[in-house]
Amino acid sequence: MPRPIQAFISQSALAHNLDVVRRSLDHAAQAAGGSAPSIWAVIKANAYGHGIEAAVAGFSAAQGLAMLDLSEAVRCREAGWGGPILLLEGFFEPADLDIVDRYHLAVTVHTREQFDMLARARLSRRIDIMLKLNTGMNRLGFSPAAYASAHARARQLHDQGVLGSIGKMTHFACADGAQGVAEQLQAFNDATRALPGPVSVCNSAATLRYPEIAVARDHQPHWVRPGICLYGASPFADVPAGSLGLRPAMSLRSQLIGVQHLAAGAEVGYGAIFRADRPMRVGVVACGYADGYPRHAPTGTPVVVGGVRTRLVGRVSMDMLMVDLDPVPAAEVGTPVSLWGQDGPAVDEVAAAAGTIGYELLCALAPRVPVTHGP
Ligand SMILES: *Cc1c(COP(=O)(O)O)cnc(C)c1O
């Protein structure tokens, strides 16, 4: 028998979260008197740990899919996705363009080197691109000063039959925080106003917080690029996903595989960092950092045991972690444990306790954890 740990992926939660985004955009479009943007569901990093095939099924109502890995793009095609696919980092070497061509992928272009590769490529059809502008995050993209000439180079490649549509794209650094997007949006508008083509600027935080930005009033196609919210986690540190109407798509579940009775003063786990201040029962859960549970989660991190919320105690080890059973007197070996998801704490709560974000925990689900799919 395998260890009792399991990740459950809910296809209806994926579809529901996409619909939450869709409705919020439709509402913003109505209010602003423009048209709602299309949605590229971001499914990079194995769909934030949920599995590419599950994401293709769950996001069947999206207009497009966006990711980084060419192999993940190919898996989407093999899973039957015939719609647009955008590679968010574009391509990395000339041979990648064979796959881009064969599987009809759209690419982000953010360097001169990529233009050089495009100019030398032998392609069977035009490639649609999103030309990336660096508006201040200083990660990917052409500077505002270099953007017009990059766009001219793209138009030249278009005229030579290499490129199809030429879109405009940037990425916000602080859409979830106090700084917001105003400065970057201004830089984007200044650099791209005169250039026609599809537009894409919003990640989850910007899509949910500033949906009006994505509303098209210029008769150009607009696209948003939500990721994390589609999986039912929050892009905002101070706003729980549930209050945004989102549902967790991944539930990490296990069981108690042991119970210990501690005397007052007894210690638990590696480093003996937890000491019982009274007699207590401690449950041993088949889940550790080799399953993707964060090792930095401290005593007090929420865990649900037998439907009751309790706390982690002591240090998380590779294959196990320990929990306080005082609030769950009926718990015994075999009692179900929910680490995060539908019937557990929100992944964002566990992440916050461990000093990280839900994104990291979802992406870090270990390959050894068996995954089941359901409604
Ligand atoms: C990851 C990513 C997104 C999605 O970000 P979320 O915060 O998960 O919504 C959007 N655009 C780009 C370029 C990305 O790399």
UniProtKB/TrEMBL annotation:
| Chain ranges passing through the membrane | none
Q: Which residues form the Alanine racemase C-terminal domain?
A: 249-374
Q: Which residues form the active site?
A: 44, 270
**What EC numbers are recorded for this enzyme?**
5.1.1.1
Q: Which InterPro entries match?
A: Ala_racemase, Ala_racemase/Decarboxylase_C, Ala_racemase_C, Ala_racemase_N, Ala_racemase_pyridoxalP-BS, PLP-binding_barrel
Query: What is the role of this chain?
Result: Catalyzes the interconversion of L-alanine and D-alanine. May also act on other amino acids.
From the Swiss-Prot or TrEMBL record, give the protein name: Alanine racemase
Per the UniProt entry, what species is this protein from, by scientific name?
Answer: Bordetella genomosp. 7
